[in-house]
Write a structure and sequence with these properties.
Layout: H1 6-35, H2 39-65, H3 85-112, H4 116-146, H5 150-161
Helix pairs in contact: 1-2, 1-3, 2-5, 3-4, 4-5
Bound molecules: fe (ii) ion (2 copies).
One fe (ii) ion (FE2) is lined by residues 19, 22, 52, 55, 99.
């Protein structure tokens, strides 16, 4: 008898797909930025890809640990082209807002099912999404300040390149 119900594990499997889709989107964006010689942004986006993979594996481990079935689905193809770096981060923010909405809906489902263990797991995701929305919003503000000028863009790119594995949210 699994300790996670089918409706909850179904919903968690959908979330795994969203996290992997997020990872894939960031990987595509990173490759695009690298092609534009925006090495700082490329590195930032590559770290984000790794983070999203961790979000997915955390859910996979949870389902497995609660006796559920992990059911991986196809991942949507991400765009290969972006207008500019501002376009990239506007899409990041929009994407993360949609992920937050999905996590909130999932949380509601777990709450209605009185599945406290899943709610405890999802607390981590709820907290994580605050940062996942704040960071791109800050980067968008920086890019808007920098305007369309090459020196401004280079400065933002350099700032993004300062992000390290030790401080994933920075
Ligand atoms: Fe995520
Ligand atoms: Fe994310």
């Amino acid at each position: 008898m699994p300790r996670v119900t089918k409706p909850i594990s179904d919903a968690l499997n959908d979330q795994i797909n969203r996290e992997l889709e997020s990872a894939y989107v960031y990987l595509a964006m990173s490759a695009w930025a690298d092609g534009k010689n925006l090495r700082g942004a490329a590195g930032w986006l590559r770290l984000q890809w790794e983070e999203e993979l961790q979000h997915a594996t955390k859910l996979i481990d949870y389902i497995a640990g609660r006796g559920g079935t992990v059911d991986l689905k196809a991942i949507t193809k991400p765009p290969a082209r972006y207008k500019d770096l501002l376009d990239v981060f506007r899409q990041v923010l929009k994407h993360e807002e949609a992920v937050t909405a999905a996590i909130n809906a999932l949380y509601g489902k777990a709450a209605r099912a009185r599945d406290y263990a899943t709610q405890a797991l999802l607390d981590w995701y709820v907290n994580e999404q605050v940062e996942e929305e704040n960071t791109p919003a800050e980067i968008i503000a920086m890019l808007e300040l920098a305007g369309d000028t090459p020196p401004g863009l280079l400065m933002v790119d350099q700032h993004l390149g300062e992000r390290s594995r030790a401080a994933p949210g920075a």
